[in-house]
Amino acid sequence: MRVVAAMSGGVDSAVAASRMLEAGHEVVGVHLALSQSAATLRESARGCCTIEDAGDARRVADKLGIPFYVWDMAERFKADVVEDFVAEYEAGRTPNPCLRCNEKIKFAALLDKALALGFDAVATGHYAQIVEGPNGRELHRAVDMAKDQSYVLGVLDADQLAHSFFPLGDTTKPQIREEAASKGFYVANKPDSHDICFIADGDTQGYLAKRLGKQPGDIVDSDGEVVGRHEGAYGFTVGQRRGLGLKVPREDHAKRYVVDVQPKTNTVVVGTADLLGVDVIEAEHARWPGPPPTGEVRLGAQLRAHGEEFPAWVSADGERVTVRLDERTRGVAPGQSVVLYEGTRVVGSATITATSRAPR
């Protein structure tokens, strides 16, 4: 097969490209230029897709003897990931830009371009597994649960999955580094990227303040009493405890958390931890890498990357999903994604729109 290997410049994508080549595929390395001013992005371990990362990817491609290209997707990334990120926070929601990047860039824009150019598939360094099941290809968790990235791949649909390869899913991260070192890859010991790649200093609240400006408003307790002020409700998320700057303490000195963000009134609502617990989740924009569930089915629900999986009853109606957790959990915010599992298999994902508490 003719395969585009998405090469970020890290050790994982380097080994993924190498494995696809060893499997007998015709491989072309592609690095995605996602910033209109890459030199302003963070360097070294803290991000991805910087100028130095492009150089690292090119060195690996040269070592493998495969063609290498840089594809400029900065405009698409800005519109579909960066602007979406800002708009979601402004609307009082908490987005995951990595899921949006996978959905809109790596497995939409990149895959679409690859297929248009006559390639058969895209391979990435994500930690997940593809298994041939009774209904076709299935997306499963990686062997290395500490690195499992099936959550951020839950946005793939069946057609995208049919044109994808994840060669690292059966291997642990230490083994990947050993393999990279044995092949003489310069990036064998390169630290992993983390945080949000387009926020140079990791300060999400500061980044949003620069984009959206100061929007002073009230922080109120659950009974409506004003207990503080803020510079923009967009800078808060459900479950947050630090950085609230409350001026009026509770008589019982109980810790308070953000329990609601109300963008229409520019109000942040805080309360005690017991108010955070929810067990009913409404979501939309469902994505199914295989057949969608019919009726009410028993599945596991994961609410954040590398988070706990919760047993739940799930029902789907088109692009809408209702998840009823067995037990209440805290810190679930609109805008986050719920990814559904049957064992290790990813059933689908959806974006959370509302949460509530079922009567006990």
TrEMBL record:
It catalyses: S-sulfanyl-L-cysteinyl-[protein] + uridine(34) in tRNA + AH2 + ATP = 2-thiouridine(34) in tRNA + L-cysteinyl-[protein] + A + AMP + diphosphate + H(+). The keyword S-adenosyl-L-methionine does not apply. ATP binds at residues 6-13, 32, 125. This is tRNA-specific 2-thiouridylase MnmA. Transmembrane segments: none annotated. Catalyzes the 2-thiolation of uridine at the wobble position (U34) of tRNA, leading to the formation of s(2)U34. Pfam families: tRNA_Me_trans, tRNA_Me_trans_C, tRNA_Me_trans_M. InterPro entries: MnmA-like, MnmA-like_C, MnmA-like_central, MnmA-like_central_sf, Rossmann-like_a/b/a_fold. SUPFAM superfamilies: Adenine nucleotide alpha hydrolases-like. It comes from the Bacteria. Its EC number is 2.8.1.13. Residues 280-352 form the tRNA-specific 2-thiouridylase MnmA-like C-terminal domain. Gene3D superfamilies: Adenine nucleotide alpha hydrolases-like domains, HUPs, Translation factors. Residues 147-149 are annotated as: Interaction with tRNA. Residues 206-271 form the tRNA-specific 2-thiouridylase MnmA-like central domain. The active site is at residues 101, 197. NCBIfam families: PRK00143.1, trmU. Belongs to the MnmA/TRMU family. The record marks 126, 336 as: Interaction with tRNA. It is found in: Cytoplasm.
